[in-house]
Amino acid sequence: MKQHDLDIVVRNLQETFPPLIKKINTGDYMQKYNLTPTLARILFTLKYHNRQSLSKLGKRVGLTTSNCSRAVERLFELDYIERNTDENDRRRTLITLSQEGDKLIAELRKLYYQQLKKHLSELSSEDIKKLKESSEQIHAILSKLH
User: Fold this and answer.
1) How far apart are CA 95 and CA 85, in angstroms?
2) Which of 90, 105, 113, 139 has its CA 20 to 30 A from that of 3?
């Protein structure tokens, strides 16, 4: 029974969050920063998994190495990331957020929050109450993964 329940949870999370994130990512505010949803995803990934090699970053965000390389180059040109040589392996380059990238993430978080709140405010009071209770439970459970 546990495997079946786990399959249902995974399916529900996969089907719930991407459309919501897509709705938020379509905001005009991203154009202000010359970002696409993919570039924003890379920045958020670097925020939470700092110092990534190109191949590892590509795997984390679901991009081929060549597509990730192009995206990283664009973020580098925008001064949102830095590339540094790995101290343990001089042939490897590690990618990190720059100070500008870190500032941008803080701004994007505020904008994401506003967009999410705007979209969720369209729900009924009863739905918001149910969502609040459910999200508190989800947060409590998933925080055990750390």
Assistant:
1) 9
2) 139
